[in-house]
Amino acid sequence: MINKVFSPVFTKYNPIKQLRDYEKAYMPAVCQTHFQANFGSGEINEEIRSEKQTWNKQYEGDWSMLPWAGEEPTNSEKKYIDRFLTGKNQKILEYGCGTGKMASYLASQGHDVLAAEYSDVAVKKIKSTNPPFEIMEASAPSDIKDKNFDMITCIGVFHHQPPEVQEEFLKSFSQMITPDGQIIIMGWDDTDPEFVAMPKRISKQTKTRTWTINHLENVIPKYGLRIKNPPELINFTEIGWNADRILRCYVIERS
Ligand SMILES: C[S@@+](CC[C@H](N)C(=O)[O-])C[C@H]1O[C@@H](n2cnc3c(N)ncnc32)[C@H](O)[C@@H]1O
Known about the structure:
By secondary structure, the chain is α/β, with parallel strands linked by helices. It contains 9 helices and 8 strands. It has one domain: 3-Layer(aba) Sandwich (Rossmann fold), CATH 3.40.50. S-adenosylmethionine (SAM) binds next to loops.
């Protein structure tokens, strides 16, 4: 069962118009390929995965231009995390922290936060601000030797990994939480308009392949885990691109 939690602006989606808009305005070559593959003939061959340099490029420029920027997490993200983060002084891993906004928010609530991030450019910039949390570079959760987290949050990171890597991440997380620990994962849902229009979606921001996270539901029990709360969907309009998007949210605990 799916609960919809947040729907501020959710306009009618027109995939062909939207693809044409991308094509004209943003990334002609990749969108042309998408457009042909989805509405013309042939399959998309693009399997470009994001790498460290992909992310470094994002963080070299002005952070306010990033669609996931913002000094704070969105209200829907905050409300969602606050609902499940009831204890005080929790030990939290914020994996794939990006600009560090969720790590800052969690630290401001009195929690002991370790932020991990792939991009060394982002890590260096965040460190230079003397953040109220610890931060380290990581390309996979297995790089983190610290264990016993009360909570692991991972927002917008899984969908940049192919399904088999998502499963490896989940397996590592399962070994890093306390017996009562929780894992919160947010990533693109199968019903997200861009995936409906382009099942092999390439991110318009990073120009790399992305995946949805729905399949995780089937593998969660393999790692001694279970879904604590029925997966919920967050609808929002992506800043900068003005695109309607749908995130799927999992709250996972030990079974
Ligand atoms: C869309 S951004 C989201 C950032 C942040 N979680 C937020 O919600 O604002 C995805 C982030 O995941 C990071 N990332 C991607 N693959 C990663 C990996 N294998 N290990 C750690 N971080 C990764 C990227 O560097 C980027 O900062």
